């Protein structure tokens, strides 16, 4: 049985963190230890910590994601697109880059990247893996305020954040849900 948890293999863990390094941008990565490794430090490529010292941190513990996403210095959120992360990213001001790992995350990614056009999905290779270059390119594309992609996802994201943030949106959803439950028991 396949695990329903987003834990990367060591090679994909390394591609992810090397992709962040390749952007040249400052970063904080909060990530579970890759399969087969005792710690994140053990999985880091040789020389990585020295190369990103002062601009990059890889952390293996739990973080308060909503607080981080609200911080004014955070410009981009790279996510697996689990349900909680999906909503937290939509309600943030961050640009969104998606790297789904399992089926529900893939479906959420399709909604955000293709239907709502508020995010960019990292391109994958034929073996379903992604490269450091594909991650770096996705991040740079949304962070470039002059790029067509960056402008489009930023504008669409702002529009959907406003719609989803209206009090009547949530109360309307709850009211319809309760009404549908009542209709089911009739």
UniProtKB/TrEMBL annotation:
Tell me which InterPro entries the record gives.
UDP-glycosyltransf_plant, UDP_glucos_trans, UDP_glycos_trans_CS
The protein's superkingdom reads Eukaryota
Molecular function in Gene Ontology: UDP-glucosyltransferase activity
Pfam families (UniProt xref) = UDPGT
SUPFAM superfamilies, per the entry: UDP-Glycosyltransferase/glycogen phosphorylase (SSF53756)
Keywords of this entry: Glycosyltransferase, Transferase
Q: Which family does the UniProt entry place this protein in? A: Belongs to the UDP-glycosyltransferase family.
The protein in question is named UDP-glycosyltransferase
